[in-house]
Amino acid sequence: MRIVIAEDDPLLREGLALLLRAEGLDVVATTDSPEPFLEAVDKHEPDVAIVDVRMPPTHTDEGIVAAVEARRRQPELAVLVLSAYVEQAFATDLLAGGAAKLGYLLKERVGRVEEFLVALHRVADGGTAIDPEVVGLLLARQRPESSLARLSPRERDVLALMAEGLGNTAIAEKLVVTEGAVHKHIRSIFAKLDLPPDDRADRRVTAVLRYLEAAR
User: What CATH number matches the domain at 2-130, 3.30.70.20, 3.90.105.10, 3.40.50.1000, 3.40.50.2300?
Assistant: First the structure.
């Protein structure tokens, strides 16, 4: 796995690089701002980009903008965004083009090495990894008028875990239910969110995006 890191904190940047190299992963470039990051993506064509949300010059949304641009240039690029705070608007902006190969984690998750590496590999393999704290905040801020209000508490639990990027087997283990029960809940979620089968769209991704958008 070839990785580019864009992080303006030198300690975190080099610490990440050391951690990933110790795991046998190929960190091909580390950068501290958006322009060198995009140059590194063009030059090295990495499999995964790890990007800080806030980078120079304004330390607002440069990382998100750079991540979206990197995906435009390299559509197969997996992107794992790191943030010091829960910033749900940035999560929905990043996921607007689809949830495959995308992750959004709080930086504190990096310190939990095993969790971080699981999320990194999930994103690299084509999945989605949304920090549980981000998902929790989105659920707490859900608008009453949202179509999500139709969901039962268990269905909201299932959808929250889908938003974290978990597959059906992992959801079943987390909720201590059978996979059959998870399938049933997901079918009910699709029905209540008015998501009929459609070859043009992934209903699972659409449901997650509805969930994230409802908290804006």
Answer: 3.40.50.2300
Q: State the CATH architecture for 136-213.
A: Orthogonal Bundle (1.10)
In degrees rounded to 5, what are phi and psi of residue 79? -125, 125
pLDDT at 97: 59
| pLDDT band of 176, cuts 50, 70, 90 | very high
pTM of this prediction exceeds 0.70: no
13-38 b/e with 16+ CB inside 10 Å = b? beebbeebeeeebebbbbbbbbeebb
The span from the CA of 158 to the CA of 160, in Å, is 5
